[in-house]
Amino acid sequence: xxxxxxxxxxxxxxxxxxxxxxxxxxxxxxxxxxxxxxxxxxxxxxxxxxxxxxxxxxxxxxxxxxxxxxxxxxxxxxxxxxxxxxxxxxxxxxxxxxxxxxxxxxxxxxxxxxxxxxxxxxxxxxxxxxxxxxxxxxxxxxxxxxxxxxxxxxxxxxxxxxxxxxxxxxxxxxxxxxxxxxxxxxxxxxxxxxxxxxxxxxxxxxxxxxxxxxxxxxxxxxxxxxxxxxxxxxxxxxxxxxxxxxxxxxxxxxxxxxxxxxxxxxxxxxxxxxx
Length: 275
Known about the structure:
By secondary structure, the chain is of the alpha/beta class. The protein folds into two domains: 105 residues, Nucleotidyltransferase, domain 5 (2-Layer Sandwich); 143 residues, 2-Layer Sandwich (Nucleotidyltransferase, domain 5). It has eight helices and ten strands. The strands form two sheets. It has a five-stranded mixed beta sheet. It has a five-stranded mixed beta sheet with strand order 8-7-6-9-10, with helices on both faces. The longest helix has 28 residues. It starts with a strand and ends with a helix. The C terminus is likely disordered.
């Protein structure tokens, strides 16, 4: 059986996926990237192999993506995260035509064709107000952990306006809301709606069309997917919580298999010519 691997070394988290020949995910792992990208990539890859009950020698091809893809010293190839997320999203939802990827430090919107080729894309401005870090920072300021964001928002009665134009200005608004007794849940809901507004604007810039697929760690919180769906006035695809962070790593594993097939075809052609 031919087995491939994909790594997504993101600015916040590193993810690895081991995929079998039939498309089955044999193992996966993730952890915070930190500052030692090369060591973390190796560690997460080893954990995914252990979870799959496999060894490095069992893997036929490895492709890496993400901000730290150049630091993966055991990769066979690297690709952009736009390419990787497109492959992963279309594998999970074949009808996908627009992808919104909200990570810890970046937000990306892309439009793809029926073969998962990126036709148009846009990235968020260089500001944390358009990323998952905005929500995490808001929660931490109010004394909540990232893991508590989801349960916190379920208690919201109404949202309060958070401009989101700039993370620094948004933080000032959070301080003001807290000072007048606004509930943390309503502040988080306002932050989600601010992020949603920026997300939908980015999607419009790529001339978004259905099906819409939303990926990235921030989509662990169901409120985010519902909020985008409401603003778009359309259904959206969201991978289950187990997979939502692994889409780009999965895309790399899929691309690794395609690369092997291409290399095999080239070898067959060369053999035929030499014969």
